[in-house]
Amino acid sequence: MDRLTWCFRKENGRKIVEPSENLRKAYLQKTKEAIETAQLAKSRDWKITCMYYSMYLSLYSILMKIGVKSTIHTCTIEFAKVFLKEYFLDEELALIEKGFIARIDSQYYTDKFISEEIYQMLMKQAPLIYAKASTVVITEDNINAIRRQLSHLLNENT
User: Fold this and answer.
1) Based on the structure, what is the number of domains in the chain?
2) Mean pLDDT, residues 86-106 taken together
3) Which of 3, 85, 135, 136 is least surrounded, with the fewest CB atoms within 10 Å of its CB?
4) 32 lies in which domain range?
5) Neighbouring residues of 61: CB distance < 8 A, sequence distance ≥ 6
6) Given this model, what pLDDT does residue 149 score?
7) Measured in Å, how far apart are the chain's first and last C-alpha atoms?
8) Is the pLDDT of residue 117 over 80?
């Protein structure tokens, strides 16, 4: 919870916003487009980048449904580990973290190689994470409980 506390400290800019089903749908559309782009890309690096973003945007679509703004990727992943474990397996969240690292390594470094195993897992699992995110049903009670917990966390750190 320490990482999540850091993420939601006031000066880090993460906050509770109005929940939005429309934004959820818009981010799911962006997710679908990232997967389609990865399938069309010739470059391995861009495939990795697109598949990572598809997983990240899948998570972010759920945050929009809940009404949580988080623009730091590690904070979005940390949020999912704490609040979305009912909907995602630990292995899926670990893959998203690996995808985050692979995306950074492939975009910003010329001397780092992404293993074939990670590459294949991203290519195979990212569409499944999108499918899962697009079918997740979060009840109003769950949304309110998450928002109360975050509100409490925000108030503790002001």
Assistant:
1) 1
2) 96
3) 135
4) 2-156
5) 23, 24, 25, 27, 28, 31, 133, 134
6) 87
7) 16
8) yes
